[in-house]
Structure formats: structure tokens, C-alpha cells
Amino acid sequence: MTQPNLYSTPDLQGDSSAWMSFIWIAFGLSFFMMLVGVYYLPVDWWIKGYLYMGTMFLTASTLTLSKSLRDRHEHERLVNRVKSARTEQVLSKYGE
User: Fold this and answer.
1) Which residue windows are transmembrane per the record (predicted)?
2) How far apart are CA 24 and CA 66, in angstroms?
């Protein structure tokens, strides 16, 4: 009797639609509120421009960082899955 391989079955559990909706609403609302807040600041236009530029750059770099961290995690999962499969193959060859 062989044991089922835990690495051969994909992880089918994902984020719920409610969670994804919450994330997008929170992102959109915070971004919108930041832009409106800068618009109503009682400062010169060049200071507002600097704050808008900083907001855009910070948002873009945060999204890029988030994607890069996710991609690295997925790569490490794949590498670990391959290493585990190789180890199982070697062990099964010598276990016979």
C-alpha cells in the first residue's frame, strides 16, 4: 500500500471573492482619499505635484514589490516540489 503523494495534488484553496472585493475596495478607496486629500491641501501647486508624484510612485512600487514577493514564493514552492520528487524517486529506487 503506497501513501498518496502530497505534492502531486495541487492546492485548490484560493482567496474568496469577498476577500478579493475587500482588497480592491480598500485599495481604491485609500488611493482616492489620498488624491483628494492632496487636492485640498492649502499649499502651492508644485507641492501638490510633488505629493501626487510621490503617491503614484509609492503605489506602483508597492504593487511591483507585492508581485515580486509572490513570484519568488511560487518559484520556491516549485523548486521544493521538484526537490521532493527527486528525493522520493531516489528513496524508492533504493527502497526496493
Assistant:
1) 21-41
2) 14
What pLDDT digit, counting tens, does each position of 39-91 carry?
999 999 999 999 999 999 999 999 999 999 999 999 988 888 888 888 888 87
Q: What is the 3-state secondary structure (H, E, C) of the chain?
A: CCCCCCCCCCCCCCCCHHHHHHHHHHHHHHHHHHHHHHHCCCCCHHHHHHHHHHHHHHHHHHHHHHHHHHHHHHHHHHHHHHHHHHHHHHHHHHHC
Task: Give the start-to-end residue ranges of the domains of the chain.
Answer: 17-95
Q: Give per-residue pLDDT as tens, 3-35.
A: 555 555 555 677 789 988 999 999 999 999 999
Check if the beta carbon of residue 28 is closer than 8 Å to that of residue 11: no
Distance CA 61, CA 96 (A): 53
Phi, psi values for residue 84, rounded to 5°:
-65, -40
